[in-house]
Task: structure prediction
Amino acid sequence: MSRAPSIPRGRSSPRFCGLPPGAVGLVALALLPFILAGCGTERSSVPSRAAGELPDQEVSDFVLTETDQGAPQWKLYARYAATYNVRNVIVARTIRVDFFDEQDAKSSELTAREGEIQLQTRDMTARGNVVLQTREGTRMSTQEIRFLNRQQKIVSPLEQMVRVERGGDVLTGYGFESDPGLKRYEFKRKVEATVQTRSGGGVPARKGGAR
Result:
């Protein structure tokens, strides 16, 4: 899949219904509802979270790219996406987010059953079987996390348990914060760890919050 053209100053370039890549870069974010309406999409049977609320627009095979001064920061893929103009949000199903490092190389991949993207801030919430896998092999799993786009930070609800696996060691805890590449992460409370020994057995231990 070809990468969508970059838009300066952190704007992103959504792609819908096979629009040619050259045309995507010319489309302003304000025109998003009109692009979706022109795709000839069909109504999906996937309901909104708000009872009785119908989406303004729907699309399948959704792609959204965020850039900073032309460099990709992340790219989101979704099997289905619906726009709700009143709430200024996109609701997506079966999502994958690729995060990129300073060398424009893919550093980690996040997958989840569903997600919500705020159109103005690009903040995201992922829910359901959330897994963040880094290029180096560190794996984070939970049921809900938020990605704060401006801060480039991943945070979990304080009551949500998070599990991190790296090199055979396992840490669990609550109130998780990290960068998208899991270079440095922190648990706020109830941190427990199982450390892999040289013989291959696991030794339970308690650790401090930061790694």
